[in-house]
Design goal:
The complex is a heterodimer. Chain A contains no helices and 11 strands. Chain A is mainly β. In chain A, strands 2, 4, 5, 9, 10 and 11 form a 6-stranded mixed beta sheet that branches. In chain A, strand 9 and strand 10 form a beta hairpin. Chain A starts with a strand and ends with a strand. The model of chain A has no long low-confidence stretch (mean pLDDT 94). In chain B, the strands form 2 sheets. In chain B, strands 2, 4, 5, 6, 9, 10 and 11 form a 7-stranded mixed beta sheet that branches. Chain B is built from no helices and 11 strands. In chain B, a hairpin with a 6-residue loop joins strand 4 and strand 5. Classes of the chains: A mainly beta, B mainly beta.
Chain lengths: 113, 113
């Protein structure tokens, strides 16, 4: 089955700086790659997603890049703000509609004031 | 807010007991998935329901079962609870199986003593 690895497990950046979180996946049939933000005591919130026919997607301060050849994808957050502090999860899904998401283990992003 | 609601918020059970968790999908979403999230880990896919039938399952034993109702609300049932079943249980809904984007509820925190 699919395996998703996520790095780093903890990332501390100064407010206003950029943050990058990286994930690799194992199954070349995976075609959908979402990123979720999870705050303490809450469920995961979808922040951006990308499909395998697209190399990059941006939404304001957030961007995701996908390299299908290397089987890795990354989340980029620019101009970080205190409210960006949370745990971020990458995920991947293969093939048809009956498959669930396979998640990475998460990155705890800490924004230092 | 995603429009996905779950009940109860917290639950404490004893090893060997049975538990039922409930989820109400976002309006119009006919596909619901359940995930287990252990402390400090990413969510793990349990199963998915579409039109009241299970149509996808992760690596979980048969004592994890579910139901989906005509109004698209759903239940997760776990029999013969084990200590390792202590986790946050999340449901996620999407418009239909072939559409990727899914939205998570806030979860139910289950503690097994």
């Amino acid at each position: 089955g699919e395996n998703v690895e996520q790095h780093p497990s903890t990332l501390s950046v100064q407010e206003g700086d950029s943050a990058v979180i990286k994930c690799t996946y194992s199954d070349s049939a995976s075609n959908y790659f979402p990123w979720y933000k999870q705050e303490l005591g809450k469920g995961p919130q979808l922040i951006i997603d990308i499909r395998s026919n697209v190399g990059e997607k941006k939404d304001q301060r957030i961007a995701v890049t996908l390299n299908k050849t290397a089987k890795h994808f990354s989340l980029h957050i620019t101009e970080t703000q205190p409210e960006d502090s949370a745990v971020y999860f990458c995920a991947a899904r293969t093939g048809g509609g009956a498959d669930g998401l396979t998640f990475g283990k998460g990155t705890h992003l800490i924004i230092q004031p | 807010e995603t429009g996905v609601t779950q009940s109860p918020t917290h639950l404490i059970k004893t090893r060997g007991q049975q538990v039922t968790l409930r989820c109400s999908s976002q309006s119009g979403h006919n596909t619901v998935s359940w995930y287990q999230q252990a402390l400090g880990q990413g969510p793990q896919f349990i199963f998915q329901y579409y039109r009241e039938e299970e149509n996808g399952r992760g690596n979980f034993p048969p004592r994890f079962s579910g139901l989906q109702f005509p109004n698209y609300s759903s239940e997760l049932n776990v029999n013969a609870l084990e200590l390792d079943d202590s986790a946050l249980y999340l449901c996620a809904s999407r418009l239909e199986p072939l559409l990727d984007t899914q939205y998570f509820g806030p979860g139910t925190r289950l503690t097994v003593l």
